[in-house]
Each structure stands twice: as C-alpha cells, then as structure tokens.
Amino acid sequence: MRYCSNNLFVIFSLLMSVLLIAGCKSTTVIDQYREAPTARVNKGESIVVLGRRHSSDHETEFDFISCVGKSLSEGGNGIQVIPEKLFVDSMYPWFETRTAPMDVKNLGKLLENPAIAKKFSDFRIRYFVWIDGFTERTDSSGSVACAIGPGGGGCFGFATWDDEANYEASVWDFNKLVLSGKISAETKGTSFMPAIIIPIPLLARVQANACRSMAIQIKMFLQQGGTQGS
Predict the structure, then answer these.
(1) Banded model confidence at residue 7, pLDDT cuts 50, 70, 90
(2) CA 20 to 30 Å from 121, out of 47, 153, 190, 214?
(3) Alpha carbons 68 and 53: distance in angstroms, whole number
(4) Does residue 8 contact residue 194 with C-beta atoms inside 8 Å?
(5) pLDDT, tens digit, for every residue of 72-124?
(6) What is the distance in angstroms between the CA of the first residue and the CA of the last residue of the chain?
(7) Residue 51 pLDDT exceeds 90
(8) Contact of 84 with 67, CB cutoff 8 Å
(9) Residue 162: which of 201, 114, 204 has the closest Cα?
(10) What letter would DSSP give residue 91?
(11) How far is CA 65 from CA 49, 85, 88, 169, in A?
C-alpha cells in the first residue's frame, strides 16, 4: 500500500509539473469596427458602461461590466467611469431592462425630457458603452471524486473544462448622438483540476482576460480617434 501511494505521489508530481509548464492558457481575438471619429475624454467628462440584458437566452454579467469599468479607470490614462448601478438607479426607470434605449436615435428622444437632459448634464457624459455578451462553459471531461473514511478523507481524479467568452461593445457618442463603432472580444481557454487527496484548480480565467482585453481596446478606440470608415 505504501508503494502504491508513493507511485501515486510521483505520478501526481509529474502531472502537476507538466500542467504548470504548459499553463492554463487562454487566447483572445479582438475585432474593431469604426463608424465615426472619436475625441478624447477630457478631464471632468465621463463615460457610462452598461450591460445589455434584453435577451431571454442570456444576460451580460454585472461583474463583467464592473470589471470593464474599473479597468478603464485605472492607470495614468484612466477614464472617469460612472458605475452602472449608480447611473441606472439615478435614471430610474429610463435605463431599466425594458425601457433602456436600444439605439442612439432613442437616446436622443430621451433628451427631449428636460429632467433626463439635466441628469445627463450633471454626469457630464461623453460616451455610452453598451456591452452585450456572456461567458459559458462549452465542454468538460473527467471527474474528481472525494470520500471520507475512518482513516481520513481525500479526493482523486482529473477534470478539465473549456470556457468561452464572447462580448461586443457599442460605443455611442453622446455629443453627436451617433454610433462611433463596435469592439468585439472572443476569449477561449481550458482549465484543469488534478486531485490526489487535495483538488488543485488551475484556472484559465477566461472572463477576466476578456474584460482586460475589452477595456484596453475601448480605451485605445477612444484615444486614437480615427477617421470615418477606418
């Protein structure tokens, strides 16, 4: 029994070494379409990052929207971002799921309401960023079983799973009331969980990588300006 346990420990150590060397990698593909030029967000101006939740099949995660907003505000070239909950609550009920504008034209119609126009002015909004998408598990294999006995407990097995994140951001220019462009991020990754006595998850962090990539691209999109049709 001791010999068998030693063999299991050696196999586990070799497996862990291989996984740590290979790493839990994820890959991200970014696509960008520019409809109109953009201007830098000046000091005192802000942007709003909101999640699209009109589909019955999925909802854009609140934590993903929060992650993108936080990432946009960080660094020396950070942008002032109004938190989604603060904005939606302040604008109730105009940006709830059933009443939120689906396009720039309907956003312009909201401005005909003086009370709403004043709130927009108070926030000093320069751009709206609507993000639609979600992260899902696309495949899984293996298993980990755990048991408790008189001599103690432990887990044994090996599990792996694939996650895929797909998000698209639409950037609306609030001053010009036009769609400035769209940015999409697709991230795929594989996570592992080997277990001999103790399960050790090695996560690809697909959603976190999609968030970081999306925030970088939005910031570059706004700062680089571009020309129409590029």
Answers:
(1) low
(2) 214
(3) 16
(4) no
(5) 999 888 999 999 999 999 999 999 988 899 999 999 999 899 999 999 999 99
(6) 68
(7) yes
(8) no
(9) 204
(10) T
(11) 7, 10, 13, 11
Which of 20-24, 55-59, 62-66, 165-169 shows the lowest mean pLDDT across its residues?
Answer: 20-24
Residue 192's Cα: distance from chain center in Å? 21
Do you find a cis peptide bond into 150, omega within 30 degrees of 0? no
Query: What does R_g of the chain's alpha carbons equal in angstroms?
Result: 23
CA nearest neighbour of 163 among 195, 131, 138: 138
Beta bridge partners of 165: 135, 187
Which range among 23-37, 72-86, 137-151 has the greatest average pLDDT? 72-86
Per DSSP, the three-state class of 103 is coil
Interatomic CA distance for residues 67 and 63, integer angstroms = 6
**Please, where are the H alpha helices in 60-132?**
62-73, 84-90, 104-110, 114-123
What tokens does 85 get? 């909950």
Residue 43 structure tokens: 């000091």
Burial profile 33-44: b = 16 or more Cβ within 10 angstroms, e = fewer: ebbebbeebeee
Residue 101 CA to its chain's centroid (Å): 22
- Report the pLDDT value the prediction gives residue 56, as an integer from 0 to 100: 63
Strand 26-34 with 178-196, pairing = antiparallel
Nearest to 40 by CA among 195, 221, 161, 166: 221
Whole-number Å distance between alpha carbons of 68 and 52: 14
3-state secondary structure of 66: helix
